[in-house]
Design goal:
This protein has about 425 residues and is an alpha/beta fold. It folds into two domains: about 1-110 and about 270-430, 3-Layer(aba) Sandwich (Beta-lactamase), CATH 3.40.710.10; about 115-265, D-tyrosyl-trna(Tyr) Deacylase, Chain: A. The protein has eleven helices and 17 strands. The chain has helices at about 1-10, 45-60, 95-105, 145-155, 225-240, 270-280, 280-295, 300-315, 340-350, 350-355, 415-430, and strands at about 65-75, 80-85, 90, 115-120, 130, 135, 160-165, 165-170, 205-210, 215-220, 245, 250, 260-265, 335-340, 380-385, 390-395, 400-410. Strands 2-1-17-16-15 form a five-stranded antiparallel sheet, sandwiched between helices. A five-stranded mixed sheet has the order 12-8-6-4-13. Strands 5-7-11 form a three-stranded parallel sheet, with helices on one face. The protein is elongated.
């Protein structure tokens, strides 16, 4: 099946470096009843039939599975289907919904990151910049080498030719270790598990080449020392524009009295989150988590971000049975989230999250899913780790309005992805 091939590719290959997010073009959806139908549309008869249909759809995958958690809720959060919905299981990448909803709520959809080139003084008439040129990051996950080249071009056009000091990177906006200690050892060195940094460039990966089977291939490997690597990269970019620094690149906190020479603004937060959800970008999720911590709690590491997520869930009344969060991406196998947490979160955050999710069978990581009845009626986030299959999002049903769902199955010896697709199709028929 196409869906099986797509999921295998997602697990084995995983997205590596992605370009900065472009505007998402949303495919049209079929006509369907409005999302805000009263819960009465789901009377006892309909709910009983839904339970029978979904239990039958999931039965082959749940036979022998180690853990699962399945939930469907109405637009007001009322539980429509519960199969161990309160059991916390390994969520994989559907956990990105938590950082997405928390960030949209706390930072706002129009929030932007700023990356700045600054100095103590302006550029002299002779093209000299006294002292250091500071590259100050704020955690933008979408910053690319091309953006830094654009910054160098701006300075060159302003007449800069010589830097009296060196290029100095300020990466103090985000704190904490680059890599999460809860990630699996076999993720070490993989491009999908790149370090977190306030001066993230090219998703903190570098292009490398190796000969495999006699053929040269290109790979993306995580940077080893992000701030220093970016300082060296920026100084090289400037040199190619004819801007020479007297001192070698360095890493340090910028003084408070700098003058801004170039200010790069990221795309708005809603575009960054759409990119993260469409391609399941781990790096975006980790950068967002620490930004959330800084903006909400004043602690710009994972602990601050996770505290902000928990505060958001509590404030919005989302139940959190057995909740254990260790990262933003869901890459850690130690994470635990119950389906009821995800489904109620989706119901509460529908106005902000719904348009940012890919359309089933047509977009992003859902493009090759073999939906039938649910084709074009699902917007959802996929999730896969070794032994984990998940899908969580929304189904606009044919007759009963829009519902939120979360289907997570761990350790199934069967075909859990096919079961999840089958369940979504049956749900869409209501």
């Amino acid at each position: 099946m196409l869906v099986a091939a797509a999921i295998l590719a997602a697990v084995l290959i995983r997205p590596h470096r992605h370009p900065a997010p472009a505007p998402i073009s949303m495919a049209p959806e079929p006509a369907a009843p409005a999302a805000a139908l009263p819960v009465a549309a789901w009377g006892p008869s309909a709910r009983g039939r839904l339970e029978r249909e979904l239990r039958d759809a999931f039965a082959p995958a749940l036979a022998g599975a180690s853990r699962w958690s399945l939930a469907v809720v109405a637009g007001d959060g009322k539980l429509l289907y519960d199969e161990r919905a309160g059991r916390a299981v390994v969520p994989a990448s559907v956990q990105k919904l938590v950082v997405a909803a928390s960030s949209l709520d706390s930072l706002g959809p129009g929030y932007r990151y700023h990356t700045i080139l600054a100095a103590r003084d302006g550029i002299s008439d002779g093209g000299l910049l006294e002292g250091n040129l500071w590259l100050i990051g704020s955690g933008d996950p979408s910053l690319q080498s091309d953006d830094l080249r654009a910054g160098a071009g701006t300075l060159a056009r302003a007449g800069l030719r010589r830097i009296g000091g060196g290029v100095v990177v300020d990466a103090t906006a985000l704190r904490g270790p680059g890599l999460n200690r809860h990630w699996a050892p076999d993720d070490d060195g993989q491009d999908y598990a790149a370090p977190v940094s306030a001066i993230s460039v090219d998703e903190d990966t570098v292009e490398t080449h190796a000969v495999v089977g006699g053929v040269e291939q290109t790979f993306w490997a995580p940077m080893q020392d992000v701030a220093r690597d970016v300082a060296l990269l920026m100084q090289g970019i400037l040199a190619r524009r004819g801007i020479v620094a007297a001192m070698p690149p360095a890493v340090a906190a910028a003084p408070l009295d700098t003058v801004v020479l170039w200010d790069h603004r990221s795309a708005p937060l809603k575009a960054l989150i759409a990119h993260m959800l469409f391609v399941s970008d781990n790096h975006y999720a980790e950068q967002l988590l620490r930004t959330l911590g800084e903006e909400v709690t004043g602690v710009s590491d994972d602990t601050g971000g996770l505290a902000a997520e928990r505060a958001f869930l509590e404030r919005t009344g989302v139940p959190t049975p057995g909740l254990r969060l260790y990262d933003g991406s869901g890459l850690s196998p130690d994470n635990r989230v119950a389906a009821i947490t995800l489904a109620r979160l989706l119901a509460a955050a529908e106005p902000s999250l719904y348009p940012l999710l890919p359309l089933g069978g047509r977009q992003g990581t859902l493009a090759d899913y073999d939906f039938t009845t649910a084709l074009g009626r699902v917007r959802a986030k996929t999730g896969h780790l070794s032994g984990v299959s998940a899908l969580a999002g929304y189904v606009t049903t044919m007759h009963s309005g829009r519902v939120a769902f979360a289907f997570v199955i761990d350790g199934s010896p069967g075909n859990p992805d096919a079961a999840i697709v089958r369940a979504a199709d049956r749900l869409a028929a209501f």
